[in-house]
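Fold this sequence, please.
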Amino acid sequence: MIKFFRNIRKKLLSEGHTGKYLKYAIGEIVLVVIGILIALQINNWNNNRIEAKEEKHLLINLKSEIIGNHERLQEMMKFHEHINRHMVEFSEYFGPDQQPIEVESFENYISALSWTPYYSPQKGVFNSSLSSGKIGIIKNDNLSFKLSSITSLEKTYGNILDHLKNLLSNHFTAHIIDKYPLINMRTGDLTAAKRSSFPLEQKKVLQSMEFETLVNLKRLNTSDALGHAEELYQVQDEIIDLINSELKRFE
């Protein structure tokens, strides 16, 4: 093709048709430029198509990951509500003259006091897209912002749960070890274990100002954890809605 155009130019020059030669040369340049632009357009179209496919794939995987975390967080919120409700009830039974209460209720309160649920969100898809830079192919700026903000919310929530665990390990055991046989607690594998034959010292617990303070600290921190869990849950909900909206672009 190039040889064909070159032969035409030579013929025009040899015949002295300079004006026609210039017009032809300009026309040839225009055709080359148009060809380049078309090639670039096709290349851009292919790149956009590939990127759109990658974005859709990423959104689907992120949605699946966040839905799983959403469901786990919903269970966490139920646990927090359960613990908080028991701590509110338990706090009403303390005083210098408080008498023992029904054994099953007491043990339920002790078990709730000793229990801190653990939340470990799945982050494989998000972390991988972040480290590879693929997170940048998401077109929706609001979605990108919320995805970036969720990490901070998860960290804050995790810190509160760690504080609750430290409260348990640093204070609970020391206050309960000589007052209540831990083998009687209704949590985990201990539920099925043989009950202790030692007497239950309820009065030592219910008439202890330190233990009353511990229960109220547990209640306040659990309420704080629930509030942050609800905030995180709301953002997860918004992200899922945004992803669903974005996926409609690919239908």
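The mean pLDDT is 82. The chain is about 75% helix and 0% strand.
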